[in-house]
Amino acid sequence: MQLDSKSPTGPIEKRWEDHRFHLKLVNPANKRKYTILVVGSGLAGGSAAATLAELGYNVKCFCFQDSPRRAHSIAAQGGINAAKNYHNDGDSVYRLFYDTVKGGDFRARESNVYRLAAISLNIIDQCVAQGVPFAREYSGYLDNRSFGGAQVSRTFYARGQTGQQLLLGAYQALERQIGAGQVEMFPRTEMLDLVVVDGKARGIVTRNLITGKMETHIGDAVVLGTGGYGNVFYLSTNAKGCNTTAIWRAHKRGALFANPCFTQIHPTCIPVSGEYQSKLTLMSESLRNDGRVWVPLKKGDKRAASQIPEAERDYFLERKYPSFGNLVPRDVASRNAKQVCDEGRGVGETGLAVFLDFRDAIQRLGKNVIKERYGNLFDMYQRITGEDPYREPMRIYPAMHYTMGGLWVDYNLMSNVPGLYVIGEANFSDHGANRLGASALMQGLADGYFVLPNTIGDYLASNKFEKVETSHAAVREAESQVTQITRKLLEAKGTRSVDSFHRELGKILWEDCGMARNAAGLKQALAKIPPLREQFWRDVKILGGADELNQSLERAGRVADFFELAELMCLDALDRNESCGGHFREEYQTPEGEAQRDDEHYSYAAAWEFRGVGQPPVLHKEPLTFEFVHPAQRSYK
Amino acid sequence: MKIILHVWRQKNAGDKGRMARYEAPNVSEHMSFLEMLDVLNEDLLAKGEEPVAFDHDCREGICGMCGCMVNGVAHGPERETTLCQLHMRHFKDGDELYLEPWRAKAFPVIKDLVVDRSAFDRIIAAGGYISVATGSAPDGNAVLVPRDNAERAMDAAACIGCGACVAMCPNASASLFMAAKIAHLGLLPQGQPEREQRVTAMVAQANQEVFGSCTNMGECEAVCPKGIKLEVIARMNRDFLSANFAGRVGLEAD
């Protein structure tokens, strides 16, 4: 299969404009003749559904939560990047582009990244107009802060709830279109299969989570904005409901899955406290602006932080990376935290934590300033741990947070299945092998507000769409597939809960395909996963039926897909014999322990084609070329 | 520690429902309330009894999906804390807890502790927005927002739409929820053009959804996990009256 990225050529600043000019348009009066199915209602899906409806398309939007306002974008804390250069500190669209390509360790498409950086400007304007209450200076101007991986202040924020406020902006725009009758909303509805007719994505099969009723929705294009697959690790910072089902089942219908092993471990999360732990809580990266990361110099030093004198502390990030200090990118910060803990210098009961200390910042700025900046985060920390971070340092440890991999898409955000678009975290995205802080919100909204609404018209205007009846063979086949999965899960009547399997799978991945990977571990994981998957199908225990609200059944379907995805992640990680960004292969590191890329052999996006469960997938490569930012070893020293 | 739980079990909207008594024998103080329920559900499953259905998602106190009454108090005994952020260290060995779904006619029970809050979405759809189509916005700094206004707007915008305010209100009024949105948008210059229309449309929708009226009991403020203040309701009432005095819309009776 030849992968055509449709990436434009020419001067990088002109590419998006030229490309847009050459796209076909759908005349305003004809837009209402098309129906677009948008799955997911987060920053990407919600903003896309609202914008497509504003343009005049008929939109059906689906989410598994009880309201589109609850999508997990809501939990993003720190901020959103935009190259406004409001602070005259040398920022520009080009610099944001440069930082993002470099931050992604040269594994992203330059054309996409430049477009993202350029659109960042429009996003802030749009969100302000919607009433997003961004932080302001006393003069009334927008305030900014700095974030990991950047040396300029380009992050816009609304306290520690930026994702919430941006999502509510998109949600309100969406509700306005729902009120106008332009969007039909299907909450508590989960997509369980993609309907492909004559090679084009034409519909989805859904389950109503309250009644269990299965339905097929037919449209002219399908947009997946269903988020990332971080929950494959069981413990992650994702919401409990986040899952891979929509993109995985689309993958099984032919969509290529790109770079599944590119996962991001976030350095600042509250450490695990026990077996019952159901999720991990992120402490925004913005805390690293004022907090200093350290561990005791000596191994096994169990003294309270306040009892450890300055000379016996190791501020390891500041020591190793003097120019970026505590603001190194996430992958670097995470790996270093793991390293000091592996050396036996971790803190807290489990020894799997490092300190994030605000003592100096409080002395310098006063408690009030710190409270103003991070008050809600400090409160959250205290609620969860019962400790007061104004008095003693926070304890943090890396946790699974974001997935850079996802379905492969071209420059128009269309997958290799015509008519299937993938936006936001669900696609393999613009972040390469590592995402910079405050860039996920930017990408979700860029895709949904500004890219997809422009590109989808070209596909609609260039194709003819025959009417598809729900009696069509492809629809029937997809429906029967879904029914079979449900029946099989319910009929297993085994002995183990869904969560117990999920937890076991997560442990395998965390150990062998987590922060550091090696060939032996990955092979071991690949040997463990298939038998566990088979045991799952045989021995899973689900009570209740298919025709009612059945939360165990919902989870079981998602975990079934995680099992298949987990195998692909390990295969991809094993296949990529280099270290880059979040993918750190222990065999490939510099003498100082930094990631060692192999640009000669691995400068490509790995797009995998599904060939059946347990069958080896087929690898297709999209070569990545760098005309503007020349690959070099990332240095944050 | 050991906790005795009395949990509302209701198979579906048509079922009459009942309280069921369970014991959670090994509760750790570090567990969140929902993790305690997870463990209870694993026990129930092992015994062949259907797990308790409850809504939850982010478990960070921001998505607004979780919540139930704990001994008659929405989200339980801790102030400004959602159920998912409530930790078991606030309870003691032998405590008896009664868990019920949100209580309001406008929030019908779907199953066990799960209720239908779609009425909130319909209130927002009626007018809880600023009408700006994608692409038509001026530069972000073209409209200056005094810092104090931005902060107060943010205070109100922090609402997570969980429904605790309605569940706790003796009148099952949605005033705090509605007023939070009206204050958020009304405090910003961008929200001025539609200010009167917004309040009128949202209040009319809330009346249609059979939410009750506000009688200033203040129970909503007391349980709001985001600390939204009653003053937003005063603001809403002021906007509502001025919209009506301006004669642009007819004063509608409840």
Could you characterize what this model shows?
The complex is a heterodimer of chains A (637) and B (254). Chain A starts with 14 loop residues before the first helix and ends in a 14-residue tail after the last strand. Chain A is of the alpha+beta class. Chain A contains 17 helices and 20 strands. Among the domains of chain A are: 137 residues, Alpha-Beta Complex (Flavocytochrome C3, Chain A, domain 1); 151 residues, Up-down Bundle (Methane Monooxygenase Hydroxylase, Chain G, domain 1), CATH 1.20.58.100. A 5-stranded parallel β-sheet of chain A has the order 6-2-1-10-18. The model of chain A has no long low-confidence stretch (mean pLDDT 96). Chain B has 2 domains: 108 residues, Beta-grasp domain (Ubiquitin-like (UB roll), Roll), CATH 3.10.20.30; 129 residues, Fumarate Reductase Iron-sulfur Protein, Chain B, domain 2 (Orthogonal Bundle). Chain B contains 8 helices and 7 strands. The termini of chain B are far apart. The chains are: A alpha+beta (637), B alpha+beta (254). The interface between A and B is large, with 80 and 79 residues.
**Average pLDDT of chain A, to the nearest integer?**
96
Assembly type of the shown chains?
Answer: heterodimer
Intertermini distance of chain B: 49 Å
Relevant CATH superfamily of the domain at 473-623 in chain A: Fumarate reductase/succinate dehydrogenase flavoprotein-like, C-terminal domain
| CATH T-level fold name of the domain at 473-623 in chain A | Methane Monooxygenase Hydroxylase, Chain G, domain 1
Which class of secondary structure composition applies to the elements of chain A? Answer: alpha+beta
List the uncertain runs of chain B.
Answer: none
What is the overall shape of chain B? Answer: elongated
Give the number of helices of chain B.
8
The gyration radius over C-alpha positions of chain A equals: 24 Å
Biggest sheet of chain A: strands side by side, in what order?
A: 6-2-1-10-18
Task: Compute the number of strand runs of chain A.
Answer: 20
